[in-house]
Amino acid sequence: MSDPRDIRILLHASSNDAELLEIADKVLTGERISPAEGIVLYERASLGFAGTLADHVRTRMHGNIAYFNRNFHIEPTNLCVFDCKFCSYSRMLKQRSDGWVMSKESMMDIVRSYADKQVTEVHIVGGVLPELNLEWFADVLSSIKAMRPDLHIKGFTAVELEYMIRKAKMSYRDGLAYLQKAGLDSLPGGGAEIFDETIREQICADKCDSATWLEIHRCAHELGMHSNATILYGHIESFAHRIDHMERLRSMQDETKGFNCFIPLKFRNQHNQMSNVEECSVVEDMRNYAIARIYLDNFPHIKAYWPMIGREQAQLSLHYGVNDIDGTIDDTTKIYSMAGAEEQSPVMTTRQICELILAAGKQPVERDTLYNHIKSYSHESLDAEFGVDGFIGLPVAN
Fold first, then answer.
1. Hey, is 12 helix, strand or coil?
2. Mean pLDDT, 10 residues at a time, over the chain (398 residues)?
3. Beta carbons of 359 and 397 less than 8 angstroms apart
4. Which H or E run includes 379?
5. How many domains does the chain fold into?
């Protein structure tokens, strides 16, 4: 259902909450909702109500398309100087025997292993380790570009960048320009967590604050680099904190227009210092995707990171405002598997990810990092490219 008049009739028949219905009317006419109205959605909108609105916004922006890309990850180290309470991935420096540190050559070996594969992006993130400094990473970036000039390098959270640039005694702009010249193409969205300072003090007090995260991304945008943005939800934050987080992003996007997509990241409670906090439900996951799609009206894309929530839930999210489920990944990321995510070996072939999207009734489109279209797929084109064997018969998300 895509006609706003039909959706309005459906929503008015399903709810007698006058304030919710006023919000729905604003969304259906393309009007921006306020922070207070965003909180109302979180507090009172059912999954069906929020999902119907979000699916309308998604369809209005993207039609039936669902994006993916062919990518791989490099995680140089899980040793970290910071002590985030929610993190299951990192190890403190005194726990060096439990962690790993990759050499430049071992990182290049990973890139070399994809020499004959149709990947378009390498994603480089990890812990914060003093010896892996700005100059060291610039050397790695330039070596990757020399080997694979066509490969888009998306690298380093604002937390990593703040530390290495500060230690190099450079401004954020100069440090980013230095890495850009070496080969850095764009920034991922990690490290944002929750922008509210009172929550940040409780869960990640010792790393860069919210103003610094935003400033680093602003500098990247001014240099012509795009970036993503994330939120860590489902722990000790309130609905108001989620809206405050998205409002800060929405305001900055109005100014810079440099964010590609928003990626809600679900808190997972295994093997970390917040294991006493219960994880939120799948229903809340889908409501969060939906309300993010409604609220962030100037963000072109909402992504569900399938290695974190699993394939079936990622498939389901395509009906709740999501239009991107990330990439083939190729079993190279440990950040969420170490926290108890559904995907312990996160790898999907191009055929599998396309079949997942098709089974949800959406049109799979391979993209590059900046959302330029590379190729659209159908069942027939998959059979022609990969043969008819191996169809995995993924369930249709209802």
1. helix
2. 85 92 96 98 97 97 96 91 80 66 96 92 93 97 97 97 98 98 97 97 94 98 98 97 98 98 93 90 97 98 91 95 85 44 64 94 97 94 75 36
3. yes
4. helix 379-386
5. 2
Distances (CA, A) of 287 to 19, 71, 189, 292: 18, 28, 21, 8
Per-residue b or e along 278-301, where b marks 16 or more CB atoms closer than 10 Å to that residue's CB: eeeebeebbbbbbbbbbbbbebbb
The pTM score is 0.91
Whether residue 395 is contained in a domain is answered as no
The dihedral formed by the CA atoms of 229, 232, 233 and 235, expressed in degrees to the nearest 10: -170
- Using DSSP, state whether 218 is helix, strand or coil: helix
* Statement to judge: residues 131 and 21 lie in one domain: no
Residue at 394 is within a domain = no
Question: And the tokens for 124?
Answer: 């480089």
Quickly tell me which residue has 């729905």 as its tokens.
24
For residue 348, give both structure tokens.
Answer: 């999907």
CA dist., res. 231 & res. 235, Å (int): 11
Q: Is residue 398 part of a domain?
A: no
**What residues contact 342, with CB distance under 8 A and at least 6 apart?**
308, 309, 310, 311, 313
